[in-house]
């Protein structure tokens, strides 16, 4: 090969390597941008759902207080508003692709200490025959804070023929009620456990996720326990796992407050959601600025301009709020 031909070939190869490097860099940055957009959208949706759940919990408390005070019209309005909120939450959950919650603590059947007839079988806890059945989880190095409790279980709707104490024919069901709480709370910090009444599933292989409430954990080495309040003849449930999901949003304590108007309450929660949304937008802008810096450093001006546009749009969104 002649020298000039060799030099031309070297330039062509060098150009191909440079082009490939730019394309590879652009692909990586584009993937990072897509990931940031997905994170941003998920954070916005989750912030809204968290606010709605806290709103629903507050409405539940206010409904009970109104009923106790015989303000039945007001209690009915709280109940109706809560039903609407829960419907919106269910719709979101039904359409969302399930992703493991960030920072969730998983309490698994295989790690539980068991008392009574309850047994570990096929990755679940089964045979909750009576109210002496208890599952206990000891945690160490736990991060104190506010947690939402998610319980994953199955409770088959199937029935079998049986008889009661008097010999009458009956249909035997699964189900009942359980309580979940922290056994080792600090002195002076006693709090009633969360309770949940089981809802039936299609069969024992069909599981559902139930968000049963929120807990505040102050202990770094807590012990959690699940106990039986009531169990039906065919078993309480098959328990797959319990997740403790860090939660920054809490239902307000309304026990010593005047009963507010429903519209005012919704407005207060919408303001809270907007504040959380603004924080999310700001975090997204900072992440996009970091990506823009990488794009300019890689010489990818086209992607840099796209990122500039995205940053500007987020700025406009924050201004409109």
Using the coordinates shown, work out and report the CATH topology of the largest domain: Jelly Rolls
Largest sheet: 5 strands, antiparallel
Q: Structural class, judged by helices and strands?
A: alpha+beta
Instruction: From the alpha carbons, calculate the radius of gyration and give it in angstroms.
Output: 27 Å
Number of domains: 2
Gross morphology: globular
Helix content: 40-55%
Strand line-up in the sheet with most strands: 2-5-12-9-10
**Mean pLDDT score, rounded?**
76
Poorly predicted spans: 1-21, 249-255
- CATH level 4 superfamily of the largest domain: Galactose-binding domain-like
Strand content: 15-25%
How would you sum up this structure, described in words?
It is a single chain. This protein has 321 residues and is of the alpha+beta class. It has 2 domains: 24-96 and 261-320, no CATH class; 105-246, Jelly Rolls (Sandwich), CATH 2.60.120. Helices cover 45% and strands 23% of the residues. The chain contains 4 helices and 13 strands. It has helices at residues 3-68, 72-95, 262-297, 301-320; strands at residues 105-107, 113-115, 119-121, 124-126, 134-138, 145-154, 160-163, 169-172, 176-182, 194-197, 208-217, 223-231, 238-246. It has a 5-stranded antiparallel sheet with strand order 2-5-12-9-10, with no helix packed on it. Strands 1-13-6-11 form a 4-stranded antiparallel sheet, with no helix packed on it. Strand 7 (160-163) and strand 8 (169-172) form a beta hairpin. It is globular, with a radius of gyration of 27 Å. The N and C termini lie far apart (67 Å).
């Amino acid at each position: 090969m002649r020298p000039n031909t060799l030099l031309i070939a070297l330039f062509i190869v060098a150009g191909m390597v440079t082009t490939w490097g730019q394309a590879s860099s652009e692909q990586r940055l584009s993937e990072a941008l897509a990931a940031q957009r997905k994170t941003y959208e998920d954070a916005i949706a989750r912030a809204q759902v968290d606010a709605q759940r806290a709103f629903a919990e507050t409405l539940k408390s206010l409904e009970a207080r109104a009923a106790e005070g015989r303000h039945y019209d007001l209690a009915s309005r709280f109940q109706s508003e809560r039903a609407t909120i829960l419907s919106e939450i269910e719709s979101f959950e039904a359409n969302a692709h399930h992703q493991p919650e960030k920072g969730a603590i998983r309490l698994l059947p295989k790690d539980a200490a068991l008392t009574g007839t309850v047994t570990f079988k096929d990755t679940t806890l089964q045979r909750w025959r009576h109210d002496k059945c208890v599952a206990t989880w000891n945690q160490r190095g736990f991060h104190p804070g506010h947690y939402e409790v998610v319980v994953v279980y199955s409770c088959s709707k199937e029935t079998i023929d049986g008889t009661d104490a008097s010999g009458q024919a009956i249909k035997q069901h699964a189900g009942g009620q359980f309580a979940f709480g922290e056994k080792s709370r600090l002195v002076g910090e006693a709090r009633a456990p969360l309770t949940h009444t089981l809802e039936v599933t299609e069969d024992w292989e069909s599981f559902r996720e139930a968000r049963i409430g929120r807990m505040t954990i102050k202990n770094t080495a807590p012990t959690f326990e699940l106990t039986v309040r009531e169990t039906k003849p065919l078993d309480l449930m098959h328990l797959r796992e319990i997740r403790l999901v860090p939660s920054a949003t809490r239902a307000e304590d309304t026990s010593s407050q005047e009963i507010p108007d429903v519209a005012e309450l919704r407005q207060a929660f919408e303001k809270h959601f907007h504040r959380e949304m603004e924080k999310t937008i700001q975090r997204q802008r900072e992440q996009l600025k970091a990506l823009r810096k990488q794009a300019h450093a890689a010489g990818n001006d086209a992607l840099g301009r796209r990122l500039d546009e995205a940053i500007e749009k987020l700025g406009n969104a924050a201004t409109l709020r």
